[in-house]
Sequence to fold (202 residues):
Amino acid sequence: MQAQAKFQTAQKQAAKFIGILFLLMVAARQSHAQNEAESSEPAAQVEHHRKLVVSIPHRKLALIEDGKVSKVYSVAVGAQVSPSPTGSFAVKTRLIKPTYYHPGKVIPAGPGNPLGTRWIGLSTKGYGIHGTNVENSIGKAASHGCIRMHRKDLEELFANVQVGDQVEIRADADAELASIFGELPGAESTTETAEIPVVSGQ
Fold:
């Protein structure tokens, strides 16, 4: 009788041990599954701060990301009779294959379009950063107020900016511009008459 009681006690203890072991195994599986799910989730996107700085005297544009100069491009700026606007703006529109509109003139996308293949519109009406069908104007004060770029440079920049990005167009050389663009080059000649485009794109 005493032996039977001991046997039953041993059975209960074994059952209890097996139950605890089972619960531990279930908890371990759940923890492993949760870790796998967390590792498979995409990492949270880090928001980058972008700013474009245009130096009218240098005739250059810098893409600045997270406070560091990422790339510097040569540009054409406004001619003396049609100067580029200065101040702080924002990217308002991004258009691929823009159409050029001017009173009495409509030029669809293509090789003859003076806006090139991309239009980065600014938050000041009628002005933007775009391409050109006059490549030799780059590096000069020769535009109607907009910022012109070589096609390859413009398409690269277009892919790296978003609506809302800050744009600074500055006319006065200072220490900050010198730190971005280097020493100020000699002045270039200016030509062309003012003609501010209206733009649409596809």
